[in-house]
Design brief:
The protein is built from 8 helices and 17 strands. By secondary structure, it is α+β, with helices and mostly antiparallel strands. Helix 3 packs across helix 7.
């Protein structure tokens, strides 16, 4: 299967820099252009969440300005970190940087991917090889990595975490973890995982969400521990589809919870909770509202892969729900392209 990302220049939507700015202490996603707009759109809501004094508001204003600046510099700074890591970092487990081998993958995952790529494969046949967590929400689970590979990857991630190399935030909500592109694991690990193994599955599971047209991704590892990030607020992903793989370690709490698609009214009335199982991955639509319950004890590491299809997102940015205003960027960026796709999949919203 050809590497689609190698021939395309990817972009982000301009909304990335000023929409969906997450403020954890108030539990809010905010749009921010300037002080006047912030007061006009959010002042009563912010007061109800505890932003009462002038000092509180000025602190929030400064934080939002810094976050907008960070996002504007993100592509260039990420590329600079990647170059420095590539030239200066000494891995503890160099074998995880080798091209992805079948031995790193769980037999059940190989079976499901092999079946999905075979002539005559259909959805019902694939579902016999996966765990259906929720038929209604279209959430599935399958073992992805072997336990020896999970252990080797964890050892490498911990070694990198303890090094003096620069580290970027995994995403706008998590403060602890690793961006796999910066560490040099996109090309040997995540790209072949997407192209050779995930896309045959997602083409059958999510044909209406671009599952057969995936051409980029963003992959990162998140770490939860006492005194660091312990939970994750409810959100939806900047992705058509998401794979979330539990790598370890020993912990209690931290279950995933899922609501409906973010467009649905009362989308979190009856959330579905899903426990983590080491080595196993949960597949869901990016627009599915979800979060993580508080960690109670221990330490949890998860690999998250946002799977993107430019044939879908080129027509509707999932974050601002408008036609994307494209800005050239580094690497896979946010998965938009300037090319007009030959065929468009539209992810069902109901």
């Amino acid at each position: 299967m050809a590497t689609a990302g190698a021939q395309k220049r990817f972009c982000r939507c301009a909304c990335f820099c000023y929409q969906n700015l997450y403020v954890a202490r108030y539990g809010l996603y905010l749009r921010f252009r300037d002080e006047q707009q912030l007061r006009r759109d959010y002042e009563p809501l912010l007061r109800s969440r505890g932003c009462v004094s002038s000092k509180d508001f000025l602190q929030l204003l400064e934080e939002l300005k810094q976050e907008v600046g960070r996002r504007q510099r993100l592509g260039q700074e990420s590329a600079a970190r990647k170059a420095l890591i590539s030239s200066s970092y000494c891995p503890a487990r160099p074998e995880v940087y080798n091209s992805l081998q079948d031995t790193a993958l769980a037999p059940e995952f190989l079976d499901a991917a092999g079946y999905s790529a075979s002539p005559g494969a259909d959805l019902q046949g694939l579902l016999q090889r996966l765990e259906t967590v929720s038929e209604e929400k279209r959430i599935y689970r399958v073992p992805v990595f072997s336990m020896p590979f999970c252990q080797a990857l964890l050892e490498e991630l911990e070694h990198f975490e303890q090094s003096d190399m620069p580290k970027g935030r995994p995403n706008t909500m998590n403060n602890y973890g690793v961006v796999l592109h910066e560490l040099g694991l996109d090309e040997p690990l995540v790209t072949p995982l997407r192209e050779r193994f995930l896309q045959p599955l997602t083409a059958l599971l999510y044909p209406d969400c671009g599952g057969g047209r995936l051409d980029s991704h963003r992959a990162f590892v998140v770490k939860y521990a006492l005194g660091q990030d312990q939970e994750l607020g409810c959100h939806y992903d900047n992705a058509e589809l998401t794979l979330n793989v539990a790598l370890g370690k020993t912990f209690t709490g931290g279950a995933l919870y899922f609501g409906d698609l973010f467009q649905a009214p009362a989308a979190l009335m009856e959330p579905l909770e899903v426990e983590h199982i080491a080595g196993q991955g949960v597949l869901h639509r990016g627009g599915q509202l979800h979060g993580a319950r508080p960690l109670v004890t221990g330490e949890r590491w998860n690999l998250v892969v946002w799977l993107r299809a430019s044939a879908v997102r080129n027509h509707l940015c999932p974050m601002c729900c408008r036609e994307p205003d494209l800005v050239d960027d580094e690497g896979f960026s946010d998965g938009f392209t300037r090319e007009e796709p030959t065929m468009v999949d539209v992810c069902a919203l109901t």
